[in-house]
């Protein structure tokens, strides 16, 4: 579904990714692991077209990537806290709405689709609450619903649980795995916690110094990703 | 390290001397003193004149006190105070659409292009630089005496101030939600309408209330140059040497200004409280 091939990204002269190949299939939750500075977030940003790519290409279903095919979920959630949960989810549909019908409230069919997305993440009963009044974990689930309302084929989640407590983290990752399996989405999640990846991901990719050093079953040992090579003085 | 009565002490190292910084300090002090000397001379400040004028001030106060609180003075005074309030209200409200448009064009992040940003900033600077009294004099000449030129003058100046304040509030907003909507394919206008404006609405409303407060006070001064309201009555009573009536008008003004100031403060406090909820 989502294929990244030969991706090279440089920040100035310094290469951050060296020809990285990663694929995510339909119905699969792929966790990308790695230490700080390993290039895992840059990989996600390259997939989302948020950083210029020096070499390599990104395809969705074998074809060129359409912006609306890829939905993002952010570490800092980025909901509009003062708006209702429902309005926040509806905003995911903005990319396919004409300007005229999106300025004065959302059309009924979009609101009903957004309700279905909220139902999907288990928060339909909170539709009219202010987004800011929900807990962090609930807010991240609303952000996932917003991503669903975009009707994507791929979901890219950038450290989606780094700001959440352990219970909420489990819930959000279980939700992402379920969406991959049941809705047939390709989900790529950059994670900081190998244990969470082992429990929820279908496959893990490990990055070290901008290269893929590990790709396979989620329950394998990933300690080598985080070892410090030079002795710390 | 020395130990005195069981307390450890370390001598403070001497401060490094920086002759250059001291020189600059003295130079700044000299410029400030020189500026004040020139200003004192130019404005003709004279304690002698103030002492000599004491008798005039006393006569003035003697005639002003007690204020004339008869209904024939107080009634028109209250009516005119209401006119002043309406001038301030319309001067604020009517400037909202233009201020919003210019603020969006003059904020980084919502400005469609660099030249638009610079142009919008220039328009706002111009409107801000021309005082509302000058706008009032222009509009009085154009459309005649009365409250209407006052409203026009306030709108012009207030667009300049409120547009700038709003543009800065927009620039200070959390960039996260707009980024999320852009990544979902929303265009510039949709991002402003669905992420940016909803986030900063309380700040914009608070600044609006602050400007309403300022504009009511400004519209008093506009009355002095013929743009209607209670300022016009104050001007008239001074010209006719009816100082007791003038004092009545001033007391009404104080009540009006304090009331609007309180209202504005209460609304702004409620807005900022709601923000943290």
Automatic annotation (TrEMBL), chain A:
GO MF annotation list: ATP binding
Ranges in coiled-coil conformation: none
Pfam families: ABC_tran
Keywords noted in UniProt: ATP-binding, Nucleotide-binding, Transport
Domain ABC transporter: start-end pairs: 2-231
InterPro entries: AAA+_ATPase, ABC_transporter-like_ATP-bd, ABC_transporter-like_CS, MetN_ABC_transporter-like, P-loop_NTPase
Protein name, UniProt field: Phosphate-import ATP-binding protein PhnC
Source taxonomy: Bacteria, Bacillati, Actinomycetota, Actinomycetes, Pseudonocardiales
UniProtKB/TrEMBL annotation, chain B:
One Pfam family here: BPD_transp_1
SUPFAM superfamilies: MetI-like
Keyword list, A-Z: Cell membrane, Membrane, Transmembrane, Transmembrane helix, Transport
Gene3D superfamilies linked: MetI-like (1.10.3720.10)
Membrane topology (UniProt): Multi-pass membrane protein
InterPro entries on file: MetI-like (IPR000515), MetI-like_sf (IPR035906), PhnE/PtxC (IPR005769)
TM stretches of this protein: 21-40, 80-105, 126-145, 216-234, 246-267
Cell compartments where the protein resides: Cell membrane
Domain ABC transmembrane type-1 per the UniProt entry, residue ranges: 81-264
Family statement: Belongs to the binding-protein-dependent transport system permease family.
PANTHER family attached to this UniProt entry: ABC TRANSPORT SYSTEM PERMEASE PROTEIN P69, PHOSPHONATES TRANSPORT SYSTEM PERMEASE PROTEIN
The protein's name: Membrane channel protein component of Pn transporter
Organism annotation: Lentzea pudingi
Taxonomic lineage: Bacteria, Bacillati, Actinomycetota, Actinomycetes, Pseudonocardiales
């Amino acid at each position: 579904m989502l294929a990244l091939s030969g991706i090279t990204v440089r920040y100035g002269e310094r290469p951050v990714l060296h020809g990285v190949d990663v694929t995510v299939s339909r119905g699969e939750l792929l966790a990308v692991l790695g230490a700080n500075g390993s290039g895992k977030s840059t990989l996600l940003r390259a997939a989302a077209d948020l950083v210029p790519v020096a070499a390599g290409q990104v395809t969705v279903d074998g074809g060129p990537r359409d912006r609306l095919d890829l939905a993002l979920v952010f570490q800092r959630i980025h909901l509009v806290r003062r708006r209702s949960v429902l309005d926040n989810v509806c905003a995911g549909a903005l990319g396919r709405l004409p300007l005229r019908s999106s300025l004065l409230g959302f059309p009924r069919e979009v609101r009903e689709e957004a309700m279905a997305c909220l139902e999907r993440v288990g928060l339909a009963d909170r539709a009219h609450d202010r987004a800011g009044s929900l807990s962090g974990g609930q807010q991240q689930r609303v952000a996932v619903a917003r991503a669903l309302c975009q009707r994507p084929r791929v979901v890219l989640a950038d450290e989606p649980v780094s700001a959440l407590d352990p219970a909420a983290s489990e819930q959000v990752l279980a939700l992402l795995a379920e969406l991959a399996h049941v809705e047939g989405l390709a989900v790529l999640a950059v994670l900081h916690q190998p244990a969470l990846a082992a429990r929820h991901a279908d496959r893990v990719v490990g990055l070290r110094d901008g290269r893929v050093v590990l790709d396979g079953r989620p329950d394998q040992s990933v300690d080598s990703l985080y070892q410090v090579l030079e002795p710390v003085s | 390290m020395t130990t005195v009565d069981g307390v450890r002490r370390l001598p403070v190292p001497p401060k490094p001397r920086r002759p250059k910084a001291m020189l600059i300090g003295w130079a700044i002090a000299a410029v400030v003193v020189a500026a004040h000397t020139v200003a004192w001379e130019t404005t003709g400040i004279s304690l002698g004149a103030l002492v000599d004028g004491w008798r005039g001030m006393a006569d003035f106060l003697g005639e002003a006190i007690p204020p004339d609180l008869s209904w024939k003075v107080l009634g028109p005074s209250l009516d005119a105070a209401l006119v002043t309030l309406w001038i301030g209200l319309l001067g604020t409200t009517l400037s909202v659409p233009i201020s919003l448009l210019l603020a969006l064009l003059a904020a980084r992040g919502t400005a469609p292009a660099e030249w638009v940003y610079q142009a919008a900033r220039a328009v706002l600077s111009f409107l801000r630089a021309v005082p509302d009294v000058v706008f009032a004099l222009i509009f009085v000449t154009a459309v005649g005496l009365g409250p209407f030129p006052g409203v026009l003058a306030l709108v012009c100046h207030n667009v300049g101030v409120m547009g700038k304040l709003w543009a800065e509030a927009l620039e200070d907003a959390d960039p996260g939600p707009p980024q999320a909507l852009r990544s979902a394919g929303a265009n510039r206008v949709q991002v402003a309408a669905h992420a940016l404006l909803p986030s900063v609405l309380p700040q914009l409303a608070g600044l609006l209330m602050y400007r309403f407060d300022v504009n009511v006070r400004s519209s008093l001064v506009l009355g002095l140059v013929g743009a209607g309201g209670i300022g016009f009555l104050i001007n008239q009573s001074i010209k006719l040497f009816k100082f007791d009536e003038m004092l009545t008008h001033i007391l009404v003004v104080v009540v009006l200004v304090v009331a609007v100031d309180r209202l504005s403060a209460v609304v702004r406090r409620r807005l900022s409280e709601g923000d943290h909820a």
